[in-house]
Specification:
It catalyses: O-phospho-L-threonyl-[protein] + H2O = L-threonyl-[protein] + phosphate. The protein is mainly alpha-helical. The protein has 6 helices and 3 strands.
Length: 135
Amino acid sequence: LHPRYVLNLLHETRKHLKQLPNVSHVSTCYSEEVTVCGDLHGQLDDLFFIFYKNGLPSPSKSYVFNGDFVDRGKQSLEILIILFTFLLIYPKEVHLNRGNHEDYMVNLRYGFAKEVMQKYKVHGKKILKMIQNVF
């Protein structure tokens, strides 16, 4: 994805998240279900498998992602792009909780910062800084 679009997505995501309370309350009734998952750790195939088994987020399909989206795997940035896009499209159905891997020092140690810099050599520092602002 072109860096301009990545930065725009990050800006809109940050703007949306700043409007939310620190604690989100997600409720269900008997006719609805919520898929709760976490620890994707940059494994895009795992996210695709979850969507294959449970369906994509939609007004009738809510998700709670319990952090640790990045690090270790090779496609952490793609996971963030997908999750942030669904968050903006379905703000009432997609909920993102921050994990310990959504931290700058952890990103330096476990590979996410390096991944961003490799994928976006020219704009990597700016993108990484904006991601840290979103986190």
